[in-house]
């Protein structure tokens, strides 16, 4: 729901995602989940693209860390490396991918 006035406030609070225009009523801005600066609704497209890129990055990082940690577990089980080394690499890789 997109709104900018006091009369939009109930709909903004009931909506899954409430979007208010910055120039609108203060009550609408407080209730809304997102407030857009300015009155250009094309910013929603930019926000959606940024959101999609962020989700794509999170999924990629998750796949990468799960794959790497699976490899470390297999190396530890197979005796290729010491379990302590595998645990250290696991923690280091998790911290590195989080940054």
UniProtKB/TrEMBL annotation:
InterPro entries: HAD-like_sf (IPR036412), HAD_sf (IPR023214), P_typ_ATPase (IPR001757). SUPFAM superfamilies: HAD-like. GO terms for molecular function: ATP binding; ATP hydrolysis activity; copper ion binding; P-type divalent copper transporter activity. GO terms for cellular component: membrane. GO terms for biological process: copper ion homeostasis. Keywords: Translocase. Gene3D superfamilies: HAD superfamily/HAD-like. This is Heavy metal translocating P-type ATPase. It comes from human gut metagenome.
